[in-house]
């Protein structure tokens, strides 16, 4: 086992973790622990190079700092990645080795599930370190985050509607959801329950047909979905969907969904506001998963009531972002980042005094 620190400016610790025996090559990044231990998932991907993996892990770790700061989870930001083909190199021993590296951080980094990582994989990590979250309820964890993320996004959509229309009532609002997977699918159900006119699209046509049949949604093809008139557009598939090509086609008043990094570039957030579209920043809206997981650290362990109470605060966080954007004459995405920075600075000042 070999752990080497990689100096990265602005990060508390980034380390390369190599275990020859199991074939593990991983990176762990701790961006900032001012507000608490750095929690962020473990991603397993066939990166082209270690450089690509490093770019990804540091960017994601910083994103977790911001997300947790605005969501007030009492956590800092971190992330880890395993480099390699999950189809071929996954083994219990590899995850045990990963656990030993996580343990080397002494609790300043806490891991969780991310791309290509299952609960079964996390169980192996848990064999060699206690710093693992997101295990099942039976094992004392907070379980699958997706239904909570979906609920939090609906709270966020209601808050955005209140800001834009003066009422959070979604009855009769045309809401277009792109991507009806674990989160988008549950969001569609919750929005329909609130009387919204739900329109869905997904590249999985069978899934769209089954959901429309069961819940009575309307559907539109993925290629034409942006031509569908709607009040609220909810990107819930992949990142970078809000870009130069898509913005001119948007007919909505609000963009609010769960997809991470939905703006291709920060300037696309400004372009949305120039077009009079209210953008509810993705990392504020989709924070319920991390909020839910953060409750595992509460005294007495995970408690759903506490989690739900904190998830409802997404509405207040979002309103604070909208207010800050208006006060400073900046885009809402910039305001959300600023709010995170202000909260971290305030905590730093309090720790110094
Ligand atoms: P998922 O894989 O279950 O669902 C994604 C869905 O999008 C799939 O049904 C897929 O077929 C569809 N899709 C992919 N490309 C598409 C396209 N071009 N057009 C239409 N549909 C397309 O994933 P998920 O867990 O629901 O996550 C969705 C997004 O939310 C991701 O960006 C994820 O990072 C983000 N997110 C998820 C959580 C969570 O708790 N699961 C938390 C925070 C953020």
Summarize the structure.
With 353 residues, the protein is an alpha/beta fold.
Would you kindly provide a written description of the structure presented here, covering whatever features stand out?
By secondary structure, this protein is an alpha/beta fold. It folds into 2 domains: 2-60 and 77-132, Rossmann fold (3-Layer(aba) Sandwich), CATH 3.40.50.10860; 146-287 and 316-341, 3-Layer(aba) Sandwich (Rossmann fold). It has helices at residues 50-71, 86-89, 92-104, 119-126, 146-165, 182-193, 205-215, 267-274, 282-285, 288-294, 304-312, 314-328, 332-352, and strands at 2-5, 13-19, 24-32, 38-39, 42-45, 76-83, 109-110, 174-178, 197-201, 218-219, 232-235, 254-255, 278-279. Strands 1, 2, 3, 4, 5, 6 and 7 form a 7-stranded mixed sheet that branches. A 6-stranded parallel sheet has the order 10-9-8-11-12-13, with helices on both faces. Helix 5 crosses helix 6 and helix 12 packs across helix 13. The protein is globular. The termini are far apart.
Q: Helical stretch count? A: 13
Q: In what range is the share of β-strand residues?
A: 15-25%
Q: Quote the distance from N terminus to C terminus.
A: 40 Å
CATH architecture of the largest domain: 3-Layer(aba) Sandwich
- The CATH topology annotation of the largest domain reads as Rossmann fold
Shape: globular
Radius of gyration: 20 Å
Give the number of DSSP strands.
Answer: 13
Ligands bound to this protein structure: nicotinamide-adenine-dinucleotide
Using the coordinates above, name the CATH class of the largest domain.
Answer: Alpha Beta
Supply the CATH superfamily name of the largest domain.
Answer: NAD(P)-binding Rossmann-like Domain
- Helix share of residues? 40-55%
SSE sequence, one letter per element: EEEEEHEHHEHHEHEHEEEHEHHHHH
Major beta-sheet overview: 7 strands, mixed
Number of domains: 2
> Could you name the ranges where pLDDT drops below 50 across 5 or more consecutive residues?
none
What would you call the quaternary organization? single chain
Structural class: alpha/beta
- The residue-averaged pLDDT reads 97
């Amino acid at each position: 086992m070999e752990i080497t620190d990689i100096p990265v400016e602005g990060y508390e610790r980034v380390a390369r973790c190599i275990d020859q025996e199991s074939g593990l090559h991983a990176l762990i990044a701790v961006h900032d622990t001012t507000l608490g231990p750095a929690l962020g998932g473990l991603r397993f991907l066939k990166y082209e190079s270690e450089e690509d993996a490093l770019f990804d892990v540091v960017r994601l770790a910083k994103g977790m700092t911001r997300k947790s700061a605005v969501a007030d989870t009492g956590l800092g930001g971190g992330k880890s990645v395993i480099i390699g083909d999950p189809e071929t190199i996954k083994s219990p021993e590899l995850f045990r080795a990963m656990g030993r590296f996580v343990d080397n951080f002494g609790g300043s980094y806490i891991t969780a599930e991310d791309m290509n990582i299952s609960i079964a994989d996390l169980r192996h990590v848990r064999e060699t370190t206690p710093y693992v979250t997101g295990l099942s309820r039976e094992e004392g964890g907070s379980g699958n985050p997706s239904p909570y993320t979906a609920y939090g996004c609906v709270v966020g959509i209601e808050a955005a509607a209140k800001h834009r229309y003066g009422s959070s009532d979604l009855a009769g609002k045309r809401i277009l959801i792109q991507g009806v997977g674990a989160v988008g699918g549950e969001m569609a159900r919750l929005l329909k329950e609130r009387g919204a006119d739900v329109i869905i699209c997904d590249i999985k046509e069978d899934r769209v047909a089954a959901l429309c049949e069961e819940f009575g949604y309307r559907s539109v093809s993925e290629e034409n979905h942006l031509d569908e008139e709607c009040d609220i557009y909810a990107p819930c598939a992949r990142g970078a969907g809000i870009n130069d090509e898509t913005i001119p086609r948007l007919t909505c008043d609000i963009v609010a969904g769960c997809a991470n990094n939905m703006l291709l570039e920060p300037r696309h957030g400004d372009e949305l506001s120039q077009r009079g579209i209210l953008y509810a920043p993705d990392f504020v809206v989709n924070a319920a998963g991390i909020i839910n997981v953060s409750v595992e650290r509460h005294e007495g362990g995970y408690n759903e009531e506490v989690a739900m109470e904190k998830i409802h605060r997404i509405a207040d966080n979002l309103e604070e972002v909208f207010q800050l954007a208006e006060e400073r004459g900046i885009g809402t995405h910039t305001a959300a980042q600023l709010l995170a920075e202000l909260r971290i600075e305030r905590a730093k000042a309090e720790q110094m005094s």
